[in-house]
Amino acid sequence: MRLSKALQGKLKTVLWITLSWTIISTLQLGYEIAVLKEYGYDYRWSETGGFMTYFLINTLAFVVNGLIGGVFIVFFVRRWIRSRSYAFGLLAGVAVYIVLFFLLTCLQNYFVISSIWDGTGSFFAAYVEGLADYFFSLEFVRYFPFWLLVLTGTLIVLFISDKYGPGILKKFLLGKYFQAKSEERIFMFLDLKGSTTIAEKLGESRYFNFIQQVFKDVTSVLLDTKAEVYQYVGDEIVLTWKVKQGIEDDNCIRCFQEIQKLLQEAAPEYQKQFGAIPEFKAGIHVGTAIVGEVGVIKRDIAYSGDVLNTTARIQSRCNEFGTTLLISGDLLDRFPEGHLSPVSIGQVELRGKAETVALYSL
Fold this sequence. Notes:
The protein is an alpha+beta fold. Helices cover 59% and strands 17% of the residues. It folds into 2 domains: 5-164, no CATH class; 168-361, Alpha-Beta Plaits. It contains 13 helices and 8 strands. Strands 1, 2, 3, 4, 5, 6, 7 and 8 form an 8-stranded mixed β-sheet that branches.
């Protein structure tokens, strides 16, 4: 069974959280042992059978911690808090952390006590004694706030990733676009049909809620088709792909088709809630853009170039030609011959361009 791109992305995030937390726990353990050795002390649980035994227990515990915590954060907490404020999200994350910390500490203590129990007396009594010993120790005082900071950092990274889009944070950190560079990219301008009429019907507040719900609903398609959200502009979404990713699996075409299909299926619910059904029209084009970081107190990654203007002009002609999707001949040529079934519109003059552009509907 093939996993969707959205699910693959979530699982990848879980693995990154697991790996990060495990590495942090290993570094923390090594640092504490080194400090204790420096002052001539043995590590607290050295009776478990030596450093390697405890190291394996510690590593296994944090692999489990990372997997459970990562799954819960990515599949439940992150999804739940996306429609709430960041402050509320952090508070919810802290509450989840407290519960998971105690539960997973109990699990880790089970492995530790199992490794040192000699079979005499009650295992349950030894287990409870081990928990009490840990929760009233200085080690707990060190660990609890430390991992609270790690979790807070994890949530903040996920918040930033949501704000800028998948992969953008890494580009910022690596300074990929600190110096402007030229890239060949596919752009799609998605515009809501009949937006003025719908806005007048719903009023400003309800129309904003309407747009917010539409953007939320189409997110799964954007993730599944590897689309990067460049901008939300009013009721318009500007999407972009690297050429290879956009052509692969017909992502740039399938993105629009899947969005239309999703909104059609959700039409009864939109009609019931808002009395209006959303439908997009789109223009898609490929070309060279200049991309780089802009701004000082608010940095962003910006694209510029004729390709964006041309894509916007293409989208604006959809109503005229009675179609919801127009694709340029330049982009169509990137697909294998006979792969798509386009209908030729012909050579079309676009406002602001000296040369005509070949357009097709799909």
